[in-house]
Amino acid sequence: MPLYRDEAVVLRTQKLGEADRIVTLLSRYRGQIRAVAKGVRRTASKFGSRLEPFMVVDAQFYEGKSLDIVNQVETIGSYGGQIIDDYAAFTSANAMVEAAERLTSEESSPQQYLLLVGALRSLASKEHDSSLILDSYLLRALAIAGWAPSFDNCARCEAPGPHSAFVMQVGSVVCQECKPIGAVSISTQTSDLLGALLSGDWDQAEKASESSRSSASGIVAAYSQWHIERGLKSMPHVERA
Question: Can you tell me the mean pLDDT for 212-232?
């Protein structure tokens, strides 16, 4: 069987038989990988703990017909333990890996891989509030997938902002003259925060008020649910500040 090696993030695992697991990973160069990790549920397993959700690994695989087989695993980023110990980080991380699984396929997507690794690292090290990290991740992941939102000019007439209406289907703010029925009203502060989260302007994002953060989180959750097929089951469980 052909061998290959890649960096990957563990998205989820499921039991297989008495001692094995099926592991779903997002790799750097091969997209999603589903592989069998043999014997990892035994206490004597050499790399069982390295194949838990949120871990970043350098792994070697045997290529199989339907499922590959994990042969070797080395830890690159041990984020699982730190994330699991913090409930807010844990629920945010679950939403992230679910979104990553929905937004990627077996095709290579280094941008999605690097974005997820950076977000998990930030959660584990508590660089920012977990809600802000999650919202920033979702906006950027959707942008990479082809649904880039805009919080500057009006999507219809290109009138410069700020604007106080957001159209979920379009993923953009619109001016009062172009505002359709059903558009969501947002404040200038919320729009500014969403733009900061999309661009990674953490100085501005962390200055936002609690009300702006709450409003922005609602917009991000709704926008994610709109574009990700079947929605994200993890989102209702996310703990918000």
Answer: 91
